[in-house]
Specification:
Number of domains: 1
CATH superfamily: Gcn5-related N-acetyltransferase (GNAT)
Helix content: 25-40%
Number of strands: 7
Number of helices: 5
Strand order of the largest sheet: 1-2-3-4-5-7-6
Shape: globular
CATH topology: Aminopeptidase
Structural class: alpha+beta
Order of helices and strands: EHHHEEEHEHEE
CATH class: Alpha Beta
CATH architecture: 3-Layer(aba) Sandwich
Distance between the termini: 26 Å
Length: 160
């Protein structure tokens, strides 16, 4: 298994994996399958080419089975965010999530961030356990999940 930074030329594999993630775990994301399915090639490429962000994939051979992204906060570039974290069901509990989170944290550290934050949906205990094992702690901030306001998200933070 390898963790790689996804480049704009790999937009189709990214799109396919992202859509699979949204279909598998809709309550884990702020976006929805319906919204993402309609994106055009240029939008996928733009997401992968952001200078203030990076998206990583877990891959074995040509099979992609995990994603995580990180970007610097627009208002405070000392803060980075982890977003779009997902591991395929068949790859869970093999350390893939930990490696994806570590890739995001390393990317943030290399850019001078002093804190990494993320949102986790309440009730998503496996994700929360993963993040807390990586050193993330609750900040006390909460918000409705953008894709389903009937669910709540908790903010977690890791000081670098």
């Amino acid at each position: 298994m390898e963790i790689l930074r996804i480049r704009p030329a790999e937009w189709e594999s990214f799109r396919d994996t992202r859509l699979r993630a949204l279909a598998d775990s809709p309550s884990a994301f702020g976006s929805s399958l319906a919204r993402e399915r309609d994106r055009q090639e240029a939008e996928w490429r733009t997401r992968l080419g952001r200078p203030d962000g990076a998206i990583f994939a877990a891959r074995e051979g040509s099979a992609w089975f995990g994603l995580a992204g990180s970007y610097l906060d627009e208002e405070d570039p000392s803060v980075a965010w982890v977003v779009s974290m997902w591991v395929a069901p068949e790859a869970r509990r093999r350390g893939v999530g930990r490696q994806l989170v570590e890739s995001c944290v390393d990317w943030a550290r290399e850019r001078g961030a002093t804190e990494v934050r993320l949102w986790v949906t309440r009730g998503n205990d496996p994700a929360r356990t993963l993040y807390e094992a990586a050193g993330f702690e609750p900040t006390g901030a909460t918000q409705p999940l953008p894709s389903d306001p009937s669910l709540e998200e908790d903010e977690l933070s890791l000081r670098l």
